[in-house]
Structure formats: C-alpha cells, structure tokens
Amino acid sequence: MFSEDDLVRQHKHRADIIGNIIIFSFVIILARLWYLQIYRGDQFRLFSLENSLRKEVIKAPRGMIYSRNNEMLINNIPRFDAIVIPQYLKNKKATLNKLAQILSIDMDDIKKILRKNRGQARYRPIIIKKNISLKEVAVIETENNKMPGVEVQTFISREYRDKEIGAHLLGYISEISQSQLPRYRKRDNFSYKLGDWIGQSGIEEKFDLYLRGEDGFEFVEVDARGRRRRFVKSNALFQGIENKVSTPGNNIRLTVDRDLQIEAFKALEGKTGSVVGVDVKTGEVLTMVSNPAFDPTQFSKGLTAEYWNELRNNELNPLRDRVIQEHYSPGSTFKTFTAIAALEEKIVTADEEMMCRGTFRLGRRIFHDWKKSGHGMTNVYKSLKRSVDVYYYNIATKLDIDDLAKYAKMFGFGSKTGITLSRETKGLIPTREWKRRARGEEWQLGETLSCVIGQSYILATPLQLALSYAAIANNGTLYKPMLVKEIFSNTGEIVKDFKPQKVGEIEVSEASLKAVKKGLYQVVNEKGGTAWWYRGRGIQMAGKTGTSQVRSMTSKELFAKCTDMPYKDRHHGIFVAYAPYDDPKIAVAAVIEHGCSGSSSAAPVVRDVITKYMKKYHPNTYQKIYEKEKKAYLAELRKQQRLKKQKEREEAQASESTQSSGDQESE
Predict the structure, then answer these.
(1) What Rg value do the Cα atoms of the chain yield, rounded?
(2) Angle formed by the axes of helices 335-344 and 462-473, nearest 10°
(3) Considering only CA atoms, which of 618, 533, 634, 530 is closest in space to residue 579?
(4) β-strands 502-505, 477-479: how paired?
(5) 243 and 122, same structural domain?
(6) 334 and 380 share a domain?
(7) What CATH number should be reported for the domain holding residue 93?
C-alpha cells in the first residue's frame, strides 16, 4: 500500500501538470487577446464599425467642354435612380410591390432585374429604374421608413447643349461593360470597375482620363435595417474613419465654333452627308458636323431599348462619323492634284491647250466627258473651271500612276490625318506596287484614266479634302488637324495646351500652285464656272466641285438625269473651297451622299458656312469684298441693260426697215 507521503507526491505531480496546463492556456489566451486587441485592434475595430457604417461612393463630376469662344457645349446635371440594396431588403414582396406602384412598372420587371444581378455582392446597389422624376423621388423619400433597402441614388448626368449638333465630334458616355474592363484597364493603365461611366466615342473617349476626375466617398451610419441615420464626420467612436472629397475632372476648350456648328448642321438639314471646316493657317478644326446624327444625352441619361433600336436599325447609320470614318471617290475635286502633278512633271504648261470633243478613245474603249458636246480648246484654267474630263484623260496617257500618287500623298491623301478621334480611316491612293500586292495584277493604263478624275481606286475623307485645299491656300503647308486648344482645371490652371503642328512642307513650285489657284477662282467667280451660281457675296471663295459615281455606268446612264435614278444609284455631290481668295483664312469641304452633283448639293452648304465665318470673324474684310463685288455686279447689270436696249433699238430699226421695204414692193 501507498503511504500518505507517496499519495501526496503522486498528486503533487498531477497538480503540477494541471497547473502548467492552466498557465499555458492563460498565456495563449493573453497572447490572443494581445493579438486581437493590440496588434490588430484597429483593424478589427473597423470591422465592427462596418456593421453600423456604409461606405457610399461620391462620383466625381466630369469636366465641362467648351467651344473656342468659351460657350459651354456639355454640362453636368443631376439624375436620380431608384435603387435596391438586397442586404437591407426586408418584407421583400410587400416592399417591391410598393416600389412597383411608385415607379409605375411591372413587379415581374423588378424581379427580372434582381435575378439578373443575383451573383453580385448583396451590399451593392441594384438600379431598378434610371432617371426617375422628382415626384417619384419625393414619394420614395417619404415612404423610406416603410421600404427598407429601397433608396434614391443621385447620379451626375451629361447634358449635351445642342443635342445632335456635333454629336460625333463630342461623343457620348455610357457604363463600362464587362467585356471592356480588361481591355480598357490595359489601354489606359487605369483601374476601371463595373459601374464606372466612361467616354465611348469622340472627345469624351479620347480625353476620358482628363475629364473623369477622382471619385470620393463618405461613411454613413445605418441602423440594423440599413437605413441611413447620419453622416460620420467627427465622433470619437469613429476615429480613423475619414470621408474623401471627390475631385472634379478637368475642362476642355475646343477649337470648334458653336455658331459655325449650328450653321453647318442647318445647311445639312434634310441631307445625308458631312461638312468640315479648318483654319488655313493653323489646321484648327472650326466646324465638324455629320448628318444624320444622334442625341448623346440619351446615352448619358440611360439609353432606352427603343432609342437604341431606332439608331441601330436606321440604314443611314447615324452613329457613323462621315467626316473621318467614311471615304469617298473625290471625283473632280481630285483634278486639282492631277493638274499639279502634270504641271510639276512638265507634261503640260498652264496655257497649253488641248482639244476636247466630248470623248476619248483608249484602244476599243471610249471614255466620256460629262458634257456630251465637249468643251473645245482647253488649258489648265479652263479644265478646272469647267471640270473638263477629256483634258485629264489626255494627261493620263503621259502621267504615271506612281507619280500621281507621289503628289497626292504630299497633300495628305492615303494616310490618316492624325486627328485626336478614334476610328479614322486613311482612304486610298493606289500605286503599281499596291495593285500587285492587293490584287496580284499589273496596273493598266485605263485605270489611270479613271484615277486622274478622282474615280476608281481613289478614296478620300472629307477631312483630308479640307486639309489638302488648305495646303493649297496657304502655299504648301500641310497641318495636322487640331481639335483641342487647352485643358484646364476648375481653378483655371492650364493642365495642357496644344499648338498647331505642321505635317510637312509640300514640294511644289509656286508657279504650279498659282496656276491651280487661278483655275479654282474661276470655278466660282467667273460665268461658266461649275459653281458660279453658288458664289457667296462678300466671301470671294475659290474651290472645286466634284461628282462621285457610286457605281459603274453605261454611257446612256451617264447622261441620264441623276434625279430620275433610284436614290442609291445617284452620284455623291462634293465641294471644297477656301476663302477669301486673296488672303485665305478658312477651307471647307462638304460631301452630300446621293446629292447628284457638287454644284447643286454641296456648294450651297460650303458657301453658307464660309459666309457665317467671314461675317463673324472678319466683318471688315467681308464688307470690303461685298462692296467690291456689289460694284462689279451693278456695273455688269448696267452693261447688260445697255446691251438689251441696244438690241431692242436694232430690232426696232430692222422692223421699220422691213416694213418700209414691204410698202415699196406694194406700190
């Protein structure tokens, strides 16, 4: 048997083990308490606070966009959305029924929206209806206590002052899609997230990072049902929880003039096409309008399915910017550059004449002039003034296509202009090598005959045409088109400014430029010129008309009345001009799709835009030219009246003489 001492020693050993276990447990508990309360105390305190706090993002207002004259083109306005936060949604059926009644929408539609967003975190708000009325806002706020989880979210929406006018230039914003997220994050090196609104086209897209600003946030104390109780500003309990003020985006001042935009859009009313005007001496884009267009405000407010389908199903494609995304055969407006190439390559001289009888034979094929009877003896000036096709057919037999391409490319054709907008097309200037590579065939002389008059493979955008004629007007400097003058903050600080950029100096002799300028002047200002009827009093513009065929035609179709053709077979009308002739300041190009001719459809558009520009920016020059032209017009009118009276006297004398002879014969 164990003695009493043995029992004590045995139990003491056990007591030591139990004591050590208890001490060790306390050490572990104390260590854990130290870890939770001291080492990670602040973090867990924040976690606990989050049960009574909600972090709400404060969207930064996008920057404003202004015209060159500081007129606001895009503004920010508040928009209200009805939202549901699933985490705090109680009495779901009754709450959603009540919401459906307030918003006048079907209960099933609300359920579909909630099902669609079922996979996202329950604390994320789900938009049930965008752009709700102020009356609906008031009812929801009043009934808030009865509808936990239902709230009104304020969103800053974009308002485009002039709606469709300049829509393609300004662009639009919309919510970033799931498929765009990885691509745009990589492109802009910016952490976009679902729910962000970004620029999708135009200036809004290209300068999105400047315009978007930096979002802020604020913490809101909420009750057990998620209802807002107060904003957290200064409270000992919430120490370390700080709100962040949003920073508005930067503002942009464009080069375009709002009045010219309105005038251009008005001139295009009822027509499908585009017009673009540039400053001859800087390359600044003064106006840029495409029609038909769209209302970008509709995208910002929350695009409806009806409006989107209307745009998407419109065969005229109103979402396409015809100034830079469409390229056309430039037609006779390209003859100007063929003439320069022929003069520079010594194929012709300015005064050298060729006979035009209305047709030109190449092998067994006959090429027709637009005028059946021909134009008679023609030099460079007359070839432009009357747009004589046969003159250029003769040149084509001596002018190599690669030489023509060389001069065309000098003026910017066949390359993107570099304008700060997406999706610009570069057009096409063919060469022998291009055809071998693209078609696997050798170049044919008959193709050159079509190219010298701006048909066949030749393709150009309206912007390229405007810039190339601006280069002629300023004696050989090609500019990169400039859309933005400066970017500035809300405090007025200049963030970035832009200066005119020369693309290059065109290596063409002064004599050649002088010759084509004279011909372009005669197009508009001399009787018989193809645009003489559309000269504008007070602007003295020089330019070239063009008719671009949309398909090959037989000789019978070629001379048929264009307006009698099916709409889609009608020619495009093109006109490019600069003004004033003696001191050019603006160059404008207009393309009217299926307008039949440049003189009747496009020339009036260009004239109206240039007239508006001259009256606004150079009123003294406008008045001076107007008075000069008025004086010349009145002198011509008096001359015609004298000739008319003289003819009447001669006819009267002839009548008297005939009557006298008759009387003598009667006797």
Answers:
(1) 37
(2) 40
(3) 618
(4) antiparallel
(5) yes
(6) yes
(7) 3.90.1310.10
Spatial contact of 82 and 99, defined as CB atoms under 8 Å apart: yes
* One domain for residues 559 and 452: yes
How far apart CA 14 and CA 36 sit, in angstroms, is 33
Of 254, 285, 292, residue with least CA distance to 589: 285
Same domain, 290 and 190: no
Tell me the C-alpha distance between 412 and 410, whole Å: 6
Query: Measured in Å, how far apart are the chain's first and last C-alpha atoms?
Result: 190
Residue at a domain's end among 617, 638, 656:
617
Looking at 617, 637, 652, the residue that finishes a domain is 617
Q: Domain span at residue 635?
A: 626-667
Contact between 361 and 368 under an 8 Å Cβ cutoff? The reply is: no
Does some domain include residue 479? yes
Sign of CA dihedral 399, 403, 404, 405: positive
- pLDDT (tens digit, 9 = 90+) per residue, 600-647? 999 999 999 999 999 999 999 999 888 887 787 777 778 888 888 888
Same domain, 224 and 237: yes
For the chain, how many structural domains are there in total? 4
Tens-place pLDDT, residues 252-300: 999 999 999 999 999 999 999 999 999 999 999 999 999 999 999 999 8
Q: Tell me if 240 is assigned to some domain.
A: yes
Q: How far is CA 230 from the centre of its chain?
A: 45
Q: Answer positive or negative: Cα dihedral of 634, 639, 644, 646.
A: positive
Q: How many CB atoms lie within 10 A of CB 423?
A: 10
- Tracing tokens 């090609």 back to the chain, one arrives at 478
286 Cβ partners below 8 Å, 6+ apart?
Answer: 68, 255, 256, 257, 260, 277, 278, 279, 586, 613
Structure tokens at 50: 């989050």
Output the pTM of the full model. Answer: 0.84
What average pLDDT does this structure show over 116-124?
75
593 occurs within a structural domain: yes
Task: Report yes or no on 566 lying in a domain.
Answer: yes
Q: Residue 518: what residue type? A: K
Q: Does residue 605 share a domain with residue 459? A: yes
Q: Copy the structure tokens of residue 239.
A: 């120490």
Taking only the tens place, the pLDDT of each residue in 65-93 is 999 999 999 999 888 888 888 877 878 88
